[in-house]
Amino acid sequence: MSRKKKSSSIHGKISRVKINIKEEVKLHFQNRANESFSFSQVVKHLRIRDGKSKEFIKKLLFKMESERQLRRGPDGRWITAIEPTYYEGTVDHVNPKFAYIMVASLPDDVWVKSKDLNFSMHGDTVTIQIMSAAKASQRPEGRVISIVKRAKYEFVGRLEVSQKFGFVVLDSRNIFFDVMVYPQKYKEAIHNDKVLVKIEKWPNKENKSPLGSITHVLGQAGENNTEIYAIMAEYGLPFEFSKKVEAAAALIPGAISKEEINKRRDFRKEVTFTIDPHDAKDFDDALSVKKMENGHVEVGIHIADVSHYVTPDSLLEKEAFERATSVYLVDRTIPMLPEQLSNGLCSLRPKEEKLTFSAVFEINDQGKVFGKWFGRTVIYSDRRFAYEDAQEIIEGNAGDYQDEILLLNDLAEKIREQRFVNGAVNFESVEVNFRLDEKGKPLEVIPKERKEAHKMIEEFMLLANREVATFIFDKKKGKKPEDSLPFVYRVHNDPDSEKLDNFSKFASRFGHQLLTQGRISKNLNKLLADIQGKPEQHVLESIAIRSMAKARYTTDLKGHFGLAFEHYTHFTSPIRRYPDVMVHRLLWDYLEGKNPPDKEAIEQKCRHSSEREKRAAEAERASIKFKQVEFMSGMLGETFDGIVSGVTEWGLFVEISATKCEGMIRIADIDHDQFQYDEKQYRIVGRRTGERISLGDEIHVKVVKTDIDRRTIDLLWVEK
Predict the structure, then answer these.
(1) DSSP code of residue 256
(2) Which partner for 110 in 69, 142, 326, 377 could form a disulfide, CB atoms 3.0-4.6 Å apart?
(3) What contacts 530, CB < 8 A, 6 or more positions away?
(4) 697: which DSSP letter?
């Protein structure tokens, strides 16, 4: 390093130190609004010993006085002249000792000791005060002043009964208290029942445990239905449709009138089929295919016309909006629409005439779109394929509509290839299925396979979604964004540069390079291709996905980074997604030349749908975690190879390679050394031996404990 650079570096370090001292002085006075301090008291409080820093503080105090941030009393002592600053944030209670408060207006989360949470709980909205400024590799420290809004009033847990009262031990891993319940509030629950408990009196200085009453008895803990009901209750998912909603669905006539058919484009004579999972019942998309005289191919993407049956302001509409999405738990589906609609009237079942909303494309043999048409149609599905059936045909076996499936697959491959040329990112995360017995107990964990048949259907759905969004965008009346037609877009922002830079540094530890300049998607794809089949593949893929922004619904005219589409929407799954119903209605109104609706009203529905989507994803993950814990509970004492999939200051998350189940090694349980957490390097380091365990390392672990209630697997690190 040159002398000039070294000098500059030292100067920068001193400047940062002074900035920290200035912030600490400011906070010292703000947090003691009614107290006055002499210069020596300020220095003593801040533990300043060196002369230069003391001189800096003396000048700073006079400067703050001249700027009217401080004032001096007759005794010459300083007191703050400005009101303390408060921030509003959300509690993320990560372990019994401390929490983070996530504040949108601050660059870092605020660290708060559990004793300074003022009895707030995970998810609560709170007002906080910063107590000390952020130091190197540390977050600012604060305290909770008041609770603005409780996140929840009802919690799921297991009742433990004693002689005079009971406690509900809560399932949530982020809440570290039990709820006290008197016997008269048990509602017939017995010891070890899973229950839903409502808080009637929150904890305070006198009573550290909240008081509650049991509102629902879910069943005996550990039983499959009980645990799934517990997950549904935890995430506020509906258990059933009301009788009124079921009755409203039953009143819809099943027959399609000739008058309705005459209003629509007729595809009943075209070769049409559906391809879905083997156990699917709600078939919301079908494909038709026809060769044209000019050598091109007409591909029809036909989507269940849910908006024909679910009309605005109806009871079914209100229910669909409230649910906003179907939820797919391990052993059941919680549908957005009653079965009469989802598996009956709207489902594109074979050998039945069905009403659809279609996107029809003229495509050449290279996958280029030459023409498109959108509108309401009627179809007749000739055959229902499972993905496995279509895959066998793609792999060379003879079968129904062999020529059509092979033609569609060839077109899909070319469309997909062009999508990646345009910059789409090839994310392929590993998902799991379970083979369950008749009681719901997991017998086997099976990684999901995505083959050509899955990718073929996906590609045509992406095509329809992209082209519908582009069609609406192109219909805008002016050149300014505010002149565009209000519409529901599915957007995915570019990745955060800091997160991407951190991921790049981490990937380099495995010998992989990710350039964060230039075309990010191309660089990401190269990295993702390089790690295929390597031990670090799953860890790097998981971190790459976490580095990306979350996709959401909005009226904003933004693109989709992951798919490399300028405009994108959701049009193809209205049976299970409310935004698709909105898209169908808006598209039809614009095709009919109707006036645009209120944009803010659509945006509010988009926000609601995004929130419901997030809730569904969390519930689905919880059900998978429950089955993984249940599966591993039969393997106590067994040892496995695993990959370190997460590193925190209290433990290592390890994914067991053989089962794809994730457990934790607590740092406190590693007895051959005392390990420290290195946040920047995603690792822990032994103080005595210098031994390092990093994200992505292969290690050997033993299963020592499983907890169904909290859905956790405890592991021990063992030498091979």
Answers:
(1) P
(2) 142
(3) 512
(4) -
- pLDDT score recorded for residue 134: 60
Q: Give the separation between CA 664 and CA 653, rounded to whole angstroms.
A: 4
Helix, strand and coil in the chain, % to nearest 5: 35, 30, 40
End-to-end CA distance of the chain: 44
Specify the CATH number for 86-149; select among 3.40.980.10, 2.40.50.690, 2.60.40.730, 3.40.50.2000: 2.40.50.690
> 200-233 as b/e, with b when 16 or more CB fall inside 10 Å?
eeebeeeeeebbbbbebbbbebeebebbbbbbbb
Nearest to 277 by CA among 401, 408, 458, 436: 458
pTM score of the predicted model:
0.84
Quick one: CA torsion of 583, 589, 590, 594, rounded to 10 degrees? -150
Q: Classify domain 636-718 at the CATH class level.
A: mainly beta
Give the closest residue to 250 by CA, choosing from 173, 337, 184, 326. 337
- Written as one letter, the residue type at 423 is G
Torsion angle (degrees, nearest 10) of CA 45, 46, 51, 56: -110
Rounded Cα gap, residues 151 and 221, in angstroms? 25
Continuous segment of H or E residues that includes residue 297: strand 297-304
pLDDT digits (tens, 9 = 90+) for 20-75: 677 778 777 777 767 788 888 887 877 777 778 888 888 888 888 787 778 887 88
Query: CA 121, CA 119: separation in Å to the nearest integer?
Result: 6
